[in-house]
Design brief:
By secondary structure, the protein is of the alpha/beta class. Among the domains are: 106 residues, Nucleic acid-binding proteins (OB fold (Dihydrolipoamide Acetyltransferase, E2P), Beta Barrel); 190 residues, P-loop containing nucleotide triphosphate hydrolases (Rossmann fold, 3-Layer(aba) Sandwich), CATH 3.40.50; 162 residues, P-loop containing nucleotide triphosphate hydrolases (Rossmann fold). The protein is 39% helix and 19% strand. Strands 11-12-10-13-14-9-15 form a 7-stranded parallel beta sheet, sandwiched between helices. About 4% of the residues have low confidence. Bound molecules: adenosine-5'-diphosphate (ADP) and magnesium ion (MG). The site of magnesium ion (MG) has 4 residues, from helix 9.
């Protein structure tokens, strides 16, 4: 083979003595190249043992022993003969059994020295092997090798673990030649980490368990480092070279803004407002995460910041993850800004083309001060005259690449990301390392605790009796059901059907309204208006009401098919009540259709704290799903379990900062491999911004 053809990590798998058909199976598990292959890590190990003394044979594993045959017997039975032999060494006796073993008569006899291999089972304390593989050996034959630790790979029907092992075994040397070190020797020594090559060897072909552990530790470190470096670079990419508009604020402006709010800000809101104000007064773009439980009053804080922007002749954009939520925000803000000179507009994909043109024109001319929409608003063909502040609601799904993209051309707005699902500490450290965090850790005064009860399907009637009693006392209620499909058509059907059923049955005689995603913005607004003005007793809705609905007189929320909702979603919906002076209730109706569903419903009845809910959610779903599968835009960890690896995470964070301090652009020749790895994972743009 010519020298040039030496495999690289990019060499396709079907060039590695793997058939086309098998290559397809490899592709199905994401292995397309040699690099992917060596990045396919074992899920565990199994030991293939070497020869042992009989007295040391363990149960239920394939093992090898040797000894002298001291007795043989052949037992005739109607079901076929059984050949038995006893193997003996100085440490004990092993009983050997072969069913239908007539053929062994005369082959195995006392005095022979045998080596046998088979699975050992104990009967009455005597080790036994059935159908052992055997060979006669000379008395001085050397012992059979050392224990072999064999990697067990995540397998599929067409791709057994052993086959994967073989392919890796025959290609690992070629692969290792291409593995380059990422970090300086001094750092590795300080952290007691093995080299990258040793790590790849050790994770696939450990000779001792300790070696596999060390290998894993190193590779986890690499994963965490890569993520940390990506995050720090992305932050710098937004912040370092980019300048943001300085926004000024004085006492007068502060007073004017506060006058818009019908209440006094809580101490926690005040604190976060000042954290934000401090950021946006600076010329570097803000990257801040605002977390606060449902009902903690994030919207006002966001509105405060937007009004500062507007007063500074800047535009602000409020982005929600879905169009429905964008509409909700639009409705809330419009009502808070009634009678002010601030102009606010909503753009979603449902905005009619003609109207959209007008809105876009207003934005481009700077006539609109606040734009509300989804993230598409920033990506699409919409131009802003002078966008100074971007607020992203309910969004842990902002990927590193997107974060980098968000910047303008040498000019960046300030960014505030809000979330009601508090980010557990580990996740905050790993996924939001490039953000400063503000937390609203206090609920507004008068906030009511919400008593949560889980009713099984057959107890459903009780929920509606309870609703009737509350309505009789002058209160109002929500009934929420799951969204059945993405486009919302079934959702509408199910809400309509439920509306019919309830109005003729359980809720007969009450005044009902219905709200679902298919209603136009005006219709929704009208429905909400009627409900707020108490022209209706019960609002039957889909998850449309998840965020932003605020009716103090509503004290009960019934959640139908509660088992179908995610934990944080349930928590969000529950947060629709408990907003007034009356005791409030959440009734979860649903059966524990899965174990997880049961645990979710249980968790809801046990805690009201969004923080506990988030931790439980993380435990139940794992970090990938916590962020919404695939949508978070951040690479998933292959090895690192960040719910466990907090210490390592801190170490990686520290080291990443250290490395970048020493070589801010990773431009030194020895940092090339690392730089390439980062560019591969997060995109070259992280570095482009530095050179410009
Ligand atoms: P979040 O978005 O954090 O879930 P909201 O911003 O929707 O919470 O606020 C929840 C409710 O609390 C709203 O009815 C809001 O008007 C009210 N609220 C917010 N801040 C205060 C406050 N400081 N005092 C009294 N009520 C408040
Ligand atoms: Mg909110």
């Amino acid at each position: 083979m010519p020298f040039d053809d030496a495999p690289t990590l990019a060499t396709p798998i079907d060039k590695l003595s793997v058939s086309k058909a098998r290559a397809k199976c490899f592709a199905d598990v994401g292995i397309n190249t040699l690099g992917d292959l060596i990045d396919y890590f074992p899920r565990g190990y199994q030991v293939e043992r070497a020869e042992r003394p009989i007295g040391e044979l363990g149960p239920n594993q394939i093992q090898i022993a040797r000894g002298e045959i001291v007795a043989v017997d052949y037992i005739v039975s109607p079901r076929g003969g059984r050949f038995e032999a006893t193997l003996s060494d100085p440490t004990g006796k092993l009983s050997l059994v072969w069913f239908n073993g007539a053929y062994l008569r005369g082959k195995i006899h006392p005095g022979m020295i045998l080596r046998v291999k088979g699975k050992v089972q104990y009967f009455r304390n005597i080790p036994q092997m059935s159908h052992a593989k055997w060979e006669e050996i000379p008395p001085d034959a050397p012992l059979v090798g050392e224990d072999l630790i064999r990697s067990v790979y995540p397998a599929t029907a067409k791709l057994p673990s052993l086959y994967i092992w073989k392919v890796i075994d025959s290609n690992i040397d070629a692969g290792l030649k291409c593995v380059e070190e990422w970090f300086p020797a001094g750092l590795l020594k300080q952290r007691r980490l093995v080299s990258r090559r040793e790590a790849y060897r050790g994770i696939h072909q450990p000779t001792r368990f300790a070696e596999a552990r060390e290998a894993r530790r190193r590779l986890v470190y690499d994963e965490l480092m890569l993520m940390q470096l990506g995050l720090v670079l992305s932050k710098r990419c937004r912040g370092g070279r980019l300048s943001a508009p300085r926004m000024l604020i004085d006492r007068l402006l502060d007073e004017r803004i506060r006058k818009r709010f019908p209440f006094k800000l809580t101490a926690a809101q005040d604190r976060t407002v000042w954290e934000i104000v401090r950021d946006i007064q600076a010329a570097a773009p803000m990257s801040r995460l605002l977390q606060g439980d449902v009902g903690s009053g994030k919207t006002v804080v966001a509105l405060y910041a937007m009004l500062v922007a507007v007063a500074n002749k800047m535009q602000a954009a409020l982005l929600a993850p879905t169009e429905v939520l964008a509409e909700q925000h639009y409705l809330t803000l419009t009502s808070m800004l009634q009678g002010s000179a601030v102009s606010i507009e909503l753009i979603t994909s449902r905005t009619k083309q003609k109207a959209k043109g007008a809105v876009q024109k207003h934005l481009a001319e700077g006539k609109t001060h606040i734009a509300v929409g989804t993230q598409a608003l920033l990506r699409g063909d919409t131009d802003f005259a002078n966008l100074g502040l971007v607020i992203i609601d309910e969004q842990h799904k902002l990927g590193v690449m997107q974060r980098a993209e968000l910047k303008g051309k040498g000019f960046s707005p300030h960014y505030l990301v809000m979330t009601a699902t508090p980010i557990p500490r580990t996740l905050a450290l790993s996924y939001f390392a490039d953000f400063d965090v503000s937390t609203i850790d206090e609920l507004p005064p008068g906030h009511q605790p919400i008593q949560t009860t889980w009713l099984r399907g057959e107890q459903r009637g009780q929920a509606y009796e309870f609703v009737r009693r509350q309505v009789a006392q002058g209160r109002q209620a929500f009934v929420v059901m799951p969204q059945i499909d993405e486009n919302g058509l079934d959702e509408m059907r199910s809400v309509k059907a439920e509306f019919e059923v309830l109005s003729r049955g359980e809720l007969k005689g009450l005044r009902l309204e219905m709200l679902h995603g298919q209603l136009g913005t005006d219709e929704k607004q009208a429905v909400m208006q009627r409900f707020r003005e108490r022209q209706a007793d019960v609002l039957i809705a889909t998850t449309v009401i998840e965020v932003g609905i605020d009716v103090a007189n509503a004290t009960v929320v019934v959640i139908e098919n509660a088992d179908r909702f995610g934990l944080s979603q349930l928590h969000q919906i529950r947060g629709r009540v408990g907003r007034g002076e009356h005791a409030s209730y959440c009734l979860l109706v649903g059966d524990a259709t899965t174990e997880d569903a049961g645990q979710r419903l249980q968790a809801m009845t046990q805690t009201q704290s969004g923080f506990d809910i988030a931790e439980a959610d993380l435990r139940l779903r794992g970090p990938g799903d916590f962020f919404g599968t695939r949508q978070h835009g951040l690479p998933a960890f292959k090895l690192a379990d960040i719910t466990q690896e907090i210490e390592m995470l801190k170490v990686a964070r520290e080291d990443a900062l250290g490395l970048l301090q020493a070589d801010p652009n990773l431009a030194a020749p020895e940092n090339r491999p690392l730089r390439q790895a980062i560019a591969r994972q997060f995109g070259e743009s992280l570095f482009l911004a530095q050179v410009g």
